[in-house]
Amino acid sequence: MRTFVAAAPNQAGLPLPGRALTRRAVTITTAAIVVMSFAFSLGNVTGLCLDLGITAWIGWLVAPAVDLSVIGLLTGIRFLSLHGYTDSQLARPKYMLRFCGILTLALNTAGGGVPSSRASIRCSWAGRTGGTGCGSRWKSTCW
Fold first, then answer.
1. Which residues of 22-60 are buried (b: 16+ CB within 10 A; e: fewer)?
2. 72: domain range?
3. How many domains does the chain have?
C-alpha cells in the first residue's frame, strides 16, 4: 500500500510560482469590489436624500461617512487583533462595526420604501409599455 505525503508548506520563505500574480489578482479584485460598493452606496444614499427632500450635497457627505466608518473599523479591529488585543477588549469596536453595517444596509435599502417623484416616473413609464406585454404586470404594482 502506498501512502502519499502532501507537499510541505514553504518553510524556507522562497517565493512560490504564481504567488505574486495571485496576490495582485486578489488585491485588484478586492479594490474593484470596494470601489463598486462605494459608488453603489453613494448613489443609493444620495437618491434617498433627494427623495426625502434633503439637498444632494448632504447625501454626498452621509454615504462616504458610513462607508469609511466600516472600512476604518474593519482595518482597526484587524490591526488590534494582530497586535494581541483580546476579544473582550475588541467588543466595543465590534459592536460599533455591527451598528455601522446595519446602518449601511438600512440606508442602501430604504429608498424602496420612500414614495418619490422618481418612483412615480418609473411606474408611469412602465405603465406606458403596455404594448410590450409587460406593462400590465407593472401597472398592477405601480398604480
1. eeeeeeeeeeeeeeeeeeebbebbbbbbbbeeeeeeebe
2. 22-130
3. 1
